[in-house]
C-alpha cells in the first residue's frame, strides 16, 4: 500500500505558506504618541509570533484599559479590548473554556497593579497557562500623567503636585509573592532581549509574568534612560542567564557575589574570579527573591545594577488542566441528589 502521508505533508506546506511579521499586522492606524515605547514592543511581538508555530486563529490578545491596551487592535489575531483591570479575569474564563488557545494579556502598571491588582495576583496563584505582558512606564499615560502604583516616592505629577508619599510596587516581587511560576523583566529599547524573553514567556507552561520597561516620552520621558542608553547601560544593568555567573560592566570586569544573603559588587581580578560570583539559578526561589529586591533594598551597601532576564521558573500544574481532571472525575461518580443538596443539614426556623 502506498503511504500518502509524506505527499499530504508537502501539499500542506505548499498550500499553507509560512507566516511573517506582516501577517500579524492589521490595517488599523497605530495611535500611540510618536516615540512611545509601545511601538517597539508591538514590533517585537509581531516578529516573534510567526516562529511560535501557532495558527493565527488560535492566538488571542486580551487587554484592559490604558495606552498599552490598544494592543489587540494592532494584532491580526483574535482579541478583546476589555474593561479596566479585568483582562486577567476575562482571560481566565477563556482559558478555562478553550485551553488549546495561546492567550496573551497586555496590561500596564496602572491597569494591572491598581484597579486590576486583585485579579492579577489571583491569576498568578491559580497558574492558568497564559502570558501576562505588563508594560511598566511608572505613570498613567492614557489619562495624561497621574502617578501610578509603580511611580517612585516624591514623584510630582498632576495628581501629586507636592510629590507622591506612596511606596511603589515592585512588580516582580509582587508576582513572586503571589506564587507566579514564571517571572522575568526586559525593556522596550533592547529588541533582541525583548524577543528572547517573549519566546521564553510563551514556552513556559503556566502563568508567565513579563515586566517590560516602557518609555512614556510624553508624561515620564527618560524614566529608564540610565538602563537603555549606550553610555550607561553596561554599568547599570545586568542580564541574568541560567547557570552563568552574574557579570556586568563595559569591560565585563564587574560581578556580583553573595556575602551570605547580601549581594555585593566586586571587581574581577582584584581578589575575585568568576568562580566566586553568584551563579544565576532560575529554579532557586530564595535567590529569586533577592534578585527582585536587589535594587530597592536600602539596607544593601553600594550601588547595584538593575537585573533583567528570567528571574524564576517553576513547574506547577495548570488550573485548566486540574479543572478538566476534576470534571472527568465528577462524571465518573454518582450524580448528587440535588434536592438533598438544597435542603442541606442546617435548618433555621424564622419567627415572625
UniProtKB/TrEMBL annotation:
Q: Where are the transmembrane segments?
A: none
Annotated InterPro entries: 2-oxoacid:Fd_oxidoreductase, THDP-binding, TPP_enzyme_TPP-bd
- GO MF: oxidoreductase activity, acting on the aldehyde or oxo group of donors, iron-sulfur protein as acceptor; thiamine pyrophosphate binding
Keyword Oxidoreductase (UniProt) = yes
Key words, A-Z: Oxidoreductase
Give start and end of each Thiamine pyrophosphate enzyme TPP-binding domain.
Answer: 65-212
Question: Can you cite a GO biological process for this protein?
Answer: small molecule metabolic process
Please tell me whether the keyword Transmembrane helix is annotated for this protein.
no
Q: What is this protein called?
A: 2-oxoglutarate ferredoxin oxidoreductase subunit beta
Q: Look up and give the organism this protein is from.
A: Niabella drilacis (strain DSM 25811 / CCM 8410 / CCUG 62505 / LMG 26954 / E90)
Amino acid at each position: 500500500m502506498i503511504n500518502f502521508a509524506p505527499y499530504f505533508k508537502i501539499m500542506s506546506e505548499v498550500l499553507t505558506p509560512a507566516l511573517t511579521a506582516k501577517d500579524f499586522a492589521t490595517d488599523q492606524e497605530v495611535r500611540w504618541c510618536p516615540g512611545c515605547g509601545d511601538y517597539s514592543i508591538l514590533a517585537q511581538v509581531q516578529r516573534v509570533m510567526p516562529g511560535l508555530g501557532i495558527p493565527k486563529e488560535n492566538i488571542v490578545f486580551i487587554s484592559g484599559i490604558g495606552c498599552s491596551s490598544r494592543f489587540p487592535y494592532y494584532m491580526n489575531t483574535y482579541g478583546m479590548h476589555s474593561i479596566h483591570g479585568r483582562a486577567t479575569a476575562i482571560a481566565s474564563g477563556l482559558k478555562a473554556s478553550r485551553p488549546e488557545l495561546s492567550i496573551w494579556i497586555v496590561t500596564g502598571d496602572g491597569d494591572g497593579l491598581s484597579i486590576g491588582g486583585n485579579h492579577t495576583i489571583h491569576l498568578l496563584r491559580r497558574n492558568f497557562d497564559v502570558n501576562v505582558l505588563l508594560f511598566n512606564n511608572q505613570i498613567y499615560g492614557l489619562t495624561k500623567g497621574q502617578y501610578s502604583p509603580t511611580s517612585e516616592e516624591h514623584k510630582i505629577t498632576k495628581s501629586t503636585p507636592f510629590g507622591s508619599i506612596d511606596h511603589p510596587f515592585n512588580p516582580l516581587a509582587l508576582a513572586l509573592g503571589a506564587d507566579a511560576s514564571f517571572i522575568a523583566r526586559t525593556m522596550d529599547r533592547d529588541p533582541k532581549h525583548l524577543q528572547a524573553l517573549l519566546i521564553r514567556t510563551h514556552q513556559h507552561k503556566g502563568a508567565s509574568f513579563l515586566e517590560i520597561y516602557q518609555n512614556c516620552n510624553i508624561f515620564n520621558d527618560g524614566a529608564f534612560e540610565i538602563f537603555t542608553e549606550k553610555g550607561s547601560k553596561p554599568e547599570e544593568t545586568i542580564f541574568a542567564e541560567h547557570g552563568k555567573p552574574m557579570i556586568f560592566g563595559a569591560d565585563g570586569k564587574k560581578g556580583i557575589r553573595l556575602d551570605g544573603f547580601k549581594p555585593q559588587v566586586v571587581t574581577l581580578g582584584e581578589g575575585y574570579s568568576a568562580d566566586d560570583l553568584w551563579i544565576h539559578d532560575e529554579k532557586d526561589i530564595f535567590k529569586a527573591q533577592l534578585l527582585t529586591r536587589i535594587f530597592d533594598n536600602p539596607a544593601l551597601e553600594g550601588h547595584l545594577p538593575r537585573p533583567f532576564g528570567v528571574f524564576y521558573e517553576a513547574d506547577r500544574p495548570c488550573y485548566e488542566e486540574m479543572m478538566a481532571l476534576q470534571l472527568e472525575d465528577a462524571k465518573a461518580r454518582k450524580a448528587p441528589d440535588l434536592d438533598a443538596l438544597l435542603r442541606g443539614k442546617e435548618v433555621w426556623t424564622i419567627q415572625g
